[in-house]
Design goal:
Order of helices and strands: EHEHHEHHEHEHEHHEHEH
Largest sheet: 4 strands, parallel
Helix content: 25-40%
Strand order of the largest sheet: 2-1-3-4
CATH topology: Rossmann fold
Number of helices: 11
Structural class: alpha/beta
Number of domains: 1
Amino acid sequence: MARWMAGQTLGMMESPSVSSDMTDTLETLPFEIKNVIASRARMGLIALATDHIIEYEVPRLIHPISGAQIYTTRVPMEPKVTPQTLHGMKASLTDAAKTLLPGVQFNVIGYGCTSASVIIGELEISQAIQLAHHKTAITTPITACIAALKTLKATRIGLLTPYVEAVNQPIREYFKQNNITVVRSATFSEIDDNRAGMITPLSIKNAVLNVFSGLDLDLVFISCTSLRVAELIPELETNLGIHVTSSNHALAWHMLRLSGVLDSIPNQGTLFMS
């Protein structure tokens, strides 16, 4: 048996010597770059910090198109939806836009708030976002709604919102200024955006059918990106016999069209076939 002596090191405990001519070199490997997931359209989306629904609905409306991809960021917003809190988002828009893939060109960027698009103004929103993303097409839900109305040749609409009257009134006035007649409007009158995002699709469906059935309308517009309704639009159109669109529905369609993607998408309402 081997004996341990002071000052001695057992052979089995010795560290192997390393030859001085053995060096670790980092090899640089070749690679290729290919834009696969956004090969047809790279789209940015600025969602409100309080929005529960837009990131659920918009990608589902866009992703039937292979090669169309959406990238999302958020802008600060208080849960209480008033003209003052909506206008307050303007100061944060450029910084929010800067977090969308810095240094990468987008086909289009959508700002995800219908009411703020009216309160702040479409031009002001576009200018704020384009400070971060130059030469990029910008749209908003209200911009998309007007484009949809023109495409569908609709001038008489029903309007459903979740907003309080201080927010509803400027939106009705906006439609009037764009030569759109709001024949009838209705609201859930919910000031808290967190609660608006939890209004059930069944509640929205019942409201649309109860309020707008039988009226002389070309289209029903369901305003607010926080309302979950896009999946119901084909059914609502069948029941009402007219066109139906919503903030997220129109926004997704317009972002595709501004990106040059003109494909028809079945089972998403008449707008997506236009």
